[in-house]
Design a protein that fits this description.
two-stranded antiparallel ribbon, 6-stranded mixed sheet, single chain, 24% strand, 7 helices
């Protein structure tokens, strides 16, 4: 089954513009029921040559039904990155979301708790699972003990946030859980000669998986999505070339510095050798002057 590769920003955005898919996917990742979901795509324009690429970050406003059957309004920031250097983009977006407010319980301009979800097209260091959650822990600094089940406190909740990270290449097809089955759609295991496309050969016996696949099949036929993928490739290639040029410049500077240090070292050795030669000559001259002085004294004594 040929589908558009969702590692591309344009395909990822196209997929999650379907709010039913976005709601079901996010709910599967965070393990909580989402009652309602509103999306607010944030656009960033990137221009290369004669093309303009619109890169989307996806911010959602959601009402979540928690495990204790209460409803909680939150901001959900969903990001995806092919390369590790995108981490600074994550930090900028997160900082912006911490400044956002919304209406809550008849109050205006209320800050909302934040949940972040990161789809990574690369692997982190060994030791991190394919899908993991990072959450704040309350630790008593005096005793070093973990505070279990602390009461809800807005001050703590609004200044810390839960984060979910998905290492796409690390997701394996052992399919032990539903989330693994769903995330396998993103796996590079299904890559083809055309990196814009995947040949998905996995399970289709799940309603969410079927919806995602149908959406990604339509993305293959969408002309604008295809054009945006081409531009993303150009942007990525340009960045890669700039990084290579930077490495060449740095390598050249390091080599020049190394040669300079070597030249200085050789000069220092030459100076040191010359100083030793001068020292030896001065010593010999002093010995000769001493001998002359002795001979002169002997001659003087003989005359007396």
């Amino acid at each position: 089954m040929i589908i558009a590769n969702p590692i591309y920003d344009s395909v990822f955005k196209y997929l999650l513009e379907d709010l039913d898919i976005a709601q079901a996917l996010i709910s599967t990742i965070i393990g909580e029921e989402i009652i309602s979901l509103d999306v607010k795509p944030q656009e960033t324009l990137a221009e290369i040559d004669s093309h303009v690429l619109t890169i989307f970050r996806l911010d959602f406003k959601a009402v979540i039904k928690t495990k204790d059957n209460t409803h909680k309004k939150v901001l959900i920031e969903l990001q995806k990155a092919k390369q590790l250097f995108d981490i600074m983009r994550f930090r900028r977006y997160l900082a912006e979301n911490y400044q956002k407010t919304d209406a809550l319980d008849d109050k205006k301009n209320v800050p909302l708790p934040i949940i972040t979800i990161y789809f990574l097209g690369f692997n982190l260091k060994k030791g991190y699972p394919a899908v993991f959650k990072s959450e704040p822990q309350i630790i008593d600094v005096v005793t070093g003990e973990l505070v279990r089940k602390p009461p809800k406190e807005p001050f703590v909740e609004l200044l810390n946030h839960n984060s979910y990270t998905i290492q796409i290449p690390a997701v394996r097809d052992n399919l032990q859980t539903r989330i693994e089955k769903v995330l396998m759609i993103f796996s590079p295991k299904y890559k083809t000669d055309d990196r814009h496309k995947l040949d998905y050969l996995g399970k289709t016996d799940d309603e969410l998986i079927e919806k995602i696949l149908n959406r990604l099949i339509r993305a293959v036929a969408d002309e604008q999505v295809r054009k945006n993928m081409d531009v993303e490739d150009e942007v990525e290639n340009t960045i890669a070339n700039l990084l290579r040029e930077k490495d060449v410049i740095i390598e050249g500077k390091n080599k020049a510095l190394e040669e300079k240090e070597k030249t200085i070292e050789e000069k220092e050795k030459t100076i040191e050798a010359k100083e030793k030669t001068i020292e030896a000559k001065e010593k010999k001259l002093a010995e000769q002057e001493s001998l002359i002085a002795k001979l002169q004294q002997m001659l003087k004594n003989k005359e007396l």
